[in-house]
## 1
Amino acid sequence: MASELYLHTCLLRRQLEEELRKSGLRSALPAAAAEVWAEFAIATQGQLLAASSPLESLIDVEWTFGVTASSSELEAVGSTYVQLRLTLSGDNGRARFAHIELSLPKFYELLHQLESAKAQLEVL
């Protein structure tokens, strides 16, 4: 995670320096401004990551698979979707529900991201 943060910050630094040069600034000013920005960004992002905490916990997931049988749009007929019902626990301990509907490709993309997150957490 720290290496990703470093690479992202370096990329932003190069982008900022390039934009400052394109805007007409010459000499060492674009490089110096980008350097200060990079140092500030690393410190700020680190503090934000340290201060962040999950506000809600995932308790349960229910899912339903469906196929569109009728629609005013001909292209939508026969398309597949997944409906998710997430049970979340907030700060006060009360459960609340969040409903999400995804196309099948978006569902598989979400599933892949969740599996990647799980694998990264298991490494920690």
## 2
Amino acid sequence: MSCPDIMYAYAPQIALDGDRLWGSLGDDHDVFFTIEQTGSSAHFDWLSDLPGTNFSGQAPDGRLYRYLNWYEGYIYNDGEEWYKVPVELPDDLSGYFAFQVRPDGLGQLHAQFHTGQGAGPVQYASLTDGEWSWEQVGVWGGSGPYAGTDAWDRPFYMRFYLSGGQARWLLSLDGESNVPVGTPDADPGFLARPPRPALGGDTPIAVLHRIPGEPLNLLSIVDSDNWSENPIAGTPELPELCDEVFSTTEAACPPCHVQAKGIEFDAYQIVQTSGGQLWGVWVVSNVDFEYVYDIEQLNDTKWKCTADLEQSSPYAETTLVVAELGSEGEIGKTLELPLETVWVDDFARRHVVASAYGDDIAVMIQTDPEDTAAAVRVLRIDTDEI
């Protein structure tokens, strides 16, 4: 997909149900679509709207749920239409974080919402006999706050926050709160979702993240005192690239050239297929990167160097990798799919989103050919065929 009127897709969205793939470029871009697949044939449709802010959860039968900021309730899809369902919630509901439904492995509805302001309580709600009730599972703060149900039917809450002056994942589970898990000061990474665990299964809570200077690591959590962290082979970090703009005390701006191969900052995801199997998804960028600069004198002792993008070559050859992951980071069957030549910005932050249903995985990858136009590649992958 090429969208020349959009400069950048900051927050793409993707989901699968039994019949179709749903997608959006997010960020109020009003770009929504579906892809229906029957056998080996697929039918693409633009949508006038995809109600809600983002996807929040999925039931075992494939029903998708979305949330809407400032709406006291949730949105679900019946296969053709989206419907709003109001919920009577506390007066101090934090509308920005909304009411995010999380079905468990039996299809029973639960939800996460936030009350109060700032670091207020996070509530985990359950629907029983048509009535919603809730209890506090933690407090808001940090990145990635997530309340859900694990494979053993236990409510849990995770957030990435400071603990003892170090940023790390904090786990609340089985009556224990804010227990640090994982290596301190690693990147937060991504928590495996839908979640749609098979009750009684053995799939741990799983996070795929980067420890600086190391390959991607799989953080697997069974309990607060039973977790492991293991590197994933063949997932090096892409090193720092050239700065697009910088200041210097020298009256010269020599070209900058980097040749490297690795995974850009956020160019990876982790998903669970419906049987609980973990899959890692990442994009390997083979970069041959060169900036040529224009120079501007700012004062007697300082000059500004700005990359001339028309004369530069900030590009990479990319390969999508989809890999079956064991709970200790071991790699099973793997798909490697060459993609197109793509533009790489100086922050090397390529967006990748993924979701799963049944044995299929949906992936959307940012593949901008230049810095002034958005493009994405959308794929649906049958893991049985890998």
## 3
Amino acid sequence: MAWSKPVMAALPFIVNFPTEHYRVKTGMYVKTFNLFDLISWNLPLTFTLLPSPEFQFFSATKENLIQLTIRQPGLPTIKMITEAGIIGKVGFNSAGVAVNYNALHLQGLRPTGLPSHLALRMALESTSPSQAYDRIVEQGGMAASAFIMVGNGQEAYGLEFSPISLRKQVLDAKGRLVHTNHCLLNHGENAKELDPLPDSWSRHQRMENLLDRFDGTKEAFSRLWEDEDNYPFSICRAYEEGKSRGATLFNIMYDHARREATVRFGRPKDPDETFVLQFDDEDKRSALNAKL
């Protein structure tokens, strides 16, 4: 084979480092980034953080996803769905703490804040949502504009980060916490969103409407993420050439009573694979050693 062939094949994947460094410096965003619908429902059955279109991105990204288990002396065992090489993403730990993540489109960054994945990892190494909050705030919050949700079977909250401020989202009067890809909290007139995803509002409203009819069962909760209203820009998102570039890559539902998570790869309406994340005896011994 002529050397020119692999060179041409590699060109689309070469990183333009000056451009990427400029983006890091100025806080530029990727328009079709991690698209999540997140929800917490305060039930004995489950506190769930569900990425919906669970984790939306370009379909090719699915090939990069892995299930990762991390055991560290004196810390909770972590189980998460991430991309190879990313140290903190969407998952939960043997102390019962779960995290999720939403991209927001605001220009700029907080120079003293943590990189997004380090903040997520810090939360996953915590023994309670309250501890995660204290640790992240103590470290200056998150550098990028983003939203994270942290919770266990007893408490849940969301944190919205902008270059200007940090705001905390709490459960509403019905015990719910719902978030998509636009700011719900006031960060001041200088924190302006840049070209937010137009379907973020419709997905947020649709989820709240579905929750008004939610009967509280785990089965019904699972079906929320199969909703195709406003297809292909639905909660269960789909790729459609020339219209929708993103699709649901996976969905994860945490059951804190059992300390397990059900993962559906692909669109929840018709998943490619379904499996359950559970902690084994070694994980439980690790939690015991960490006094969890």
